[in-house]
Amino acid sequence: MTVAIAGQVWLGGRPLVAALDLRLTPGWTCLLGASGAGKSTLLRLLAGLPVAARLEGTRQAPDRIGWMAQADLLQPRLSVLGNLRLMARLRGEPLPRPRAEALLEAVGLAGRGADRPEALSGGERQRLALARVLADDAALVALDEPFSALDVPTRAAMQDLAAACLAGKTVVMVTHDPTEALRLGDRVLLLQDALLHEIPPLPGPRPVPLSDPGLAQAAAALLARMRRP
Ligand SMILES: Nc1ncnc2c1ncn2[C@@H]1O[C@H](COP(=O)(O)OP(=O)(O)OP(=O)(O)O)[C@@H](O)[C@H]1O
């Protein structure tokens, strides 16, 4: 499976991303940048979703792409199980109940299948959104700040869970959080001045433990680079 995007991204007459030549491989690629830099636009272009900008170039990606964002898009009138099985049902390939229940168990929601989304906490809703991505079983998964609305301990737990559940897939995630990018990213990219800059990743397995002595230092250095005038 090839996932690649190359060329220039234009917003009106302004280049949002110039000299783009991105090829994704299995593992996590984390995309950082200032607000308005164009991260979500680039992710949506990769995922084949509508954007205000225009790609002058080429894109190669699979048809089926897992998508998870800050807004979990759960249907309030469906149960947890109903939400999990919705996409498969719409595709006409129903998700067998035992598989759906195994997915709920994998994300720590065993026994919650009959609940309504309103009965879930913010972290639990994102667990369900993650289970929905897993149900799609797409080789490419695009994540747009999926954990940014969560409190810090819940966010760290979701990072660990997502890393475990999405192992082996090609994952591309937009985030504002340098620590998150460095914990999860096999590759870390900073979109700045309309160019993608490669940030050296931390050594060792993913997710990098929060206790890793190099993590805070690398995150501080990355934040300073992101904030430079
Ligand atoms: N629907 C739209 N119509 C016009 N311009 C848009 C639209 N959506 C985004 N833009 C513009 O495109 C540029 C990039 O936006 P994008 O959302 O990709 O940035 P971002 O880096 O993801 O920002 P943030 O971190 O704040 O979400 C911005 O200048 C934004 O104003």
From TrEMBL:
It is an enzyme of class 3 (hydrolase). Keywords: ATP-binding, Hydrolase, Nucleotide-binding, Transport. InterPro entries: AAA+_ATPase, ABC_transporter-like_ATP-bd, ABC_transporter-like_CS, ABC_transporter_ATP-bind, P-loop_NTPase. Its EC number is 3.6.3.-. Residues 1-218 form the ABC transporter domain. It holds the Pfam family ABC_tran. It comes from the Bacteria. Gene3D superfamilies: P-loop containing nucleotide triphosphate hydrolases. PROSITE patterns: ABC_TRANSPORTER_1, ABC_TRANSPORTER_2. GO terms for molecular function: ATP binding; ATP hydrolysis activity. PANTHER family: ALIPHATIC SULFONATES IMPORT ATP-BINDING PROTEIN SSUB 2, TAURINE IMPORT ATP-BINDING PROTEIN-RELATED. Belongs to the ABC transporter superfamily. This is ABC transporter, ATP-binding protein. It comes from Rhodobacter capsulatus (strain ATCC BAA-309 / NBRC 16581 / SB1003).
